[in-house]
Specification:
about 500 residues, alpha/beta, FAD/NAD(P)-binding domain, Flavocytochrome C3, Chain A, domain 1, Methane Monooxygenase Hydroxylase, Chain G, domain 1, five-stranded parallel beta sheet, four-stranded antiparallel beta sheet, globular, binds succinic acid
Amino acid sequence: METSAPIIVVGGGIAGLVTALAAAPAPVLLLTRSPGSNGAASTLAQGGIAAAIAPGDSTAAHAHDTCVAGSHHNDGAMVELLTSGAVQALEWLQQRGVVFDRDNSGALLLGREGGHDRPRIVHAGGDATGARVMAALVAAARTAPHIERQAGVDVDGLMLRNGHVCGVCVTRADGSQSAVEGRAVVLATGGVGGLFAHTSNPADADGSGLALALAAGAATRDLEFVQFHPTALAMPGVHSLPLVTEALRGAGARLLDMHGQPLMAGVHPLGDLAPRDVVARQVWSACEAGGAWLDARHVGDDFESAFPTVLAACLAHGIDPRLQPIPVTPAAHFHMGGIATDADGRTSLPGLYAVGEVACNGVHGANRLASNSLLEGVVFGQRLAQALRDADSAPSGGRSFKFLHRGPSLDVGPLNRLRGLMTQAMGPLRTGALLQVALRDCDALAHVGWQGALARSVVGAALRRQRSLGAHFRDDGPTAGHATKDAWRAA
Ligand code: SIN
């Protein structure tokens, strides 16, 4: 392998961009499906970046909240790396042009979100944090001389030589196909929201990178843990739903049931700011019973400056959240599981790396704490870039390649059927019976398209875990909900 071969980064969300930028001066080829930051869930992130910078706060307290939210399924060493890396992550972003919100004295403004025991969240442009951060990183990547960016590219296969991943197979927007060699391949393709009927993710977050890794035989971890955000804007029949940020609840908004009664009263000591899995289950049940609403009318004068994204989304759908409660529904939001990696993004396949939501190093446990995902992208993207800079070049070994393809995509009809059954079986409340039905149907769909094969792996993991834990809540059998309820009592 020529040492000039680039590091290939697949995916242009925060994890991919940080990896690409921090890998300098090593040459990077950044491949994305959509132009700019359009396809990335990071751009839609309304939450901010959690960092223990308030007087009296500590990385230990942040780590504690991360593990309580994760039902103590987290890898402690990864949590330590994440929480202790937060201040440096903020500095790194500011050096690349991100401007965080500050008060009149110049101190960083700190908001509060679910699962945090105190205000700890840094924002940029209020609930437009993801968009602001991504705009800065995309601009930095455009001018970085070591990065070549190609958009309109679907990576649908991996190239291997002597068992070592050494490139990718791509299909371009014009339908042309080719193979591209690289000294390493980084998957930073985001989550699996596209497998569900309702998601807060954009269309590109369809699990394609995870499906590719599965097809190539890479080890995966914790696939059963899919987080539902409790409050997406309820719009029946719409697949990608606008988020209604948890920070609104941090600013005093309250969840109500169809009778106008507080939904979280008596459910958890943190009430409306309970960890996300707990709130999602309540909202899910309320929606089945007739509906759930977020009453943000008392948030006050700050609405326009602190929540411009929510305000615009609501107004676009005829709802003025300053005057009326917002109808909300849970939506698939974040995959805690993914391609198994170490702290530096190495997978079980030499030459293949993964970072961000598509990866799983155990940092989030069974349920991610709010505003730890952008942070994950910055902390672990930088670590991966360092590892890539330090890594030896791939061993050369002639031109004898093996190609492993993800396979054909499902047509829209079967895909919608898959989304429906995934939502029923793999939502906030699961039963063995529904999971068995889903597994059978996914098995049939796996012969038709890669989404079926991916869903089969996710459902299979859920069936193997019989006790409830975090976002995996078994609503049947003698242990229903047991571990999740115990987690916060023990906290
Ligand atoms: C939100 O703003 O509610 C989402 C934040 C997150 O996913 O961490």
